[in-house]
Design a protein that fits this description.
This protein is α/β, with parallel strands linked by helices. Helices cover 40% and strands 16% of the residues. The strands form 4 sheets. The protein has a 7-stranded mixed β-sheet with strand order 11-10-12-13-14-15-16, with helices on both faces. Helix 1 packs across helix 11, helix 2 crosses helix 11 and helix 2 crosses helix 12. The radius of gyration is 22 Å and the shape is globular. The chain starts with a helix and ends in a 20-residue tail after the last strand.
Length: 455
């Protein structure tokens, strides 16, 4: 990716000079269409280009082909998963913009064909449409276990290359699909790393492993169940007492029963896997019932999304979220990746009004690797399925290269094995990384967590 980074940074400098010379003019809004027959479209501020910025005409493909390279970008951007799906969507779109501005593939631009898939039924209709009517051979994006399962199955059945950014569904890479690759961690491995974090915090508290008690609660869908499986496996294999393993309906509007079960079991450390609404309600009910374990480790958007702080305010103070970091330590990155990360963060915040989330970073990183290390390696021939698969298998990016601390190397099932889960904490309205030290930007607070009536 070195060459691509250098080209893009050069483009940024040229753009800056163009903009300083052209006050009030020289820009034009563009939109990316979801295909000729669908009428679906998305327009972002990041798609507004300075005149002459991309240099498309100056870098023609070697064979003279200037046709766009069309790939599907699919996410739930409406419905109950819209907040997180939108973050991934704009991560994808900004990566595409930046790739195109750096020259695309020998002058050929990536043309995203966008679809909103808020649920499994819509996903089935839309993915079939993208493949049959739009003739797409590469699809990326997505989020939501039930949706992802449908997308992957249809792509596999139709020999379409599918690159998943953020779902953690274990089954995704356990089906033997040859053309399905996932950048993010699997759910059970997420659970394993969460249990390792519980061990880490026990040591900080001076609790010996043989004395440590852990409880896990999770929404009862594939998301929560896969993480709970990993927690249970690690605890069993490492002699850690798991005193609570409780599932609940994510759609519940009252999580009092599960909080009462946590309070009754009274583990040293809780590991909780939740979506945003249930995560917020669990925190509220913990306060009402004055329940506070020594350490509460939240997983997923239920504890890491901006809406968590926006809703709870000061009651979020000290809450830990286990996720890939959304606050990269730029000086740890290659200088060129530092510039790319800063540019991405600037565009994301301009587009959505808040700093990049973990999912936003994952969407951008994943798509950036897809374009540079896979699509570009087959010279934009996205119909070359065997070439795409070979290129994906050849990706070898060291851990710590990307802003989240991720690297990228796929195993024989198509699962990225260089995924790093950090420990972040809400401090004064900001989600800051506290561990590991190489990713840390702040000192931890409230460990152990005081009782609610003592805060």
């Amino acid at each position: 990716m070195k060459k691509r980074f250098s080209v893009f940074i050069g483009v940024l400098l040229i753009v800056a000079m163009c903009l300083s010379a052209c006050v009030g003019g020289g820009t034009s809004g563009t939109s990316t269409s979801g295909g000729g027959s669908s009428g679906k479209s998305t327009t972002s501020k990041s798609e507004t280009k300075a005149a002459g910025e991309t240099g498309k005409a100056e870098t023609p493909a070697a064979d003279g082909n200037t046709d766009p390279i069309r790939i599907g970008v699919v996410n739930p951007r409406s419905g109950k998963l819209a907040v997180t799906g939108t973050d991934d969507h704009f991560g994808c779109m900004i990566a595409i913009d930046m790739f195109n501005e750096a020259g695309g593939v020998n002058g050929r631009m990536i043309e995203p064909v966008v679809a909103d898939i808020p649920d499994a039924a819509t996903a089935q209709t839309e993915i079939n449409r993208l493949i049959q009517n739009e003739n797409l051979s590469v699809i990326t994006g997505c989020y939501g276990s039930s949706i992802v399962e449908v997308v992957a199955a249809i792509c596999n059945r139709n020999n379409v290359f599918y690159w998943e950014n953020v779902s953690i569904l274990d089954r995704l890479t356990e089906q033997g699909y040859k053309s399905v690759f996932r950048y993010h961690i699997s759910g059970s491995e997420y659970g394993v790393q969460a249990a390792q974090w519980a061990e880490f915090y026990a040591d900080k508290l001076g609790i010996a492993k043989e004395d440590l008690t852990v409880g896990t609660i999770n929404e009862n869908g594939d998301f929560g169940q896969s993480i709970a499986t990993g927690v249970e496996r690690y605890c069993s294999e490492n002699g850690i007492k798991l005193v609570l393993n409780e599932s609940y309906e994510a759609t519940t509007t009252d999580t009092t029963p599960v909080v009462l079960k946590m309070k009754e079991a009274d583990p040293d450390i809780i590991i909780a896997t939740s979506y945003i609404n249930d995560g917020i309600d669990i925190t509220k009910k913990c306060k009402v019932l004055n329940y506070s374990p020594k350490v509460f480790l939240g997983i997923g958007s239920g504890y890491g999304a901006a809406a968590y702080y926006d809703t709870l305010g000061a009651d979020s103070q000290g809450q830990i979220d286990l996720d890939p970091t959304n606050a990269p330590v730029l000086e740890n990155l290659d200088p060129e990746m530092q510039e790319l990360a800063k540019e991405f963060a600037k565009r994301f915040e301009a587009e959505l009004g808040y700093a990049p989330t973990t999912v936003g970073y994952l969407g951008w990183e994943s798509t950036w690797i897809l374009l540079n290390n896979v699509v570009a390696q087959v010279n934009g021939d996205v119909d070359d399925l065997d070439g795409l698969i070979a290129a994906a298998k050849a990706v070898d990016i060291p851990e710590g290269t990307m802003p989240t601390g991720y690297g990228c190397k796929f195993n024989d099932k198509g699962q990225n094995e260089r995924c790093v889960i950090a420990s972040m904490q809400w401090q004064d309205g900001k989600l800051v990384t506290i561990y590991p030290e190489e990713l840390s930007k702040a000192e931890p607070i409230r460990i152990p967590m005081p009782a609610w009536d003592e805060r």
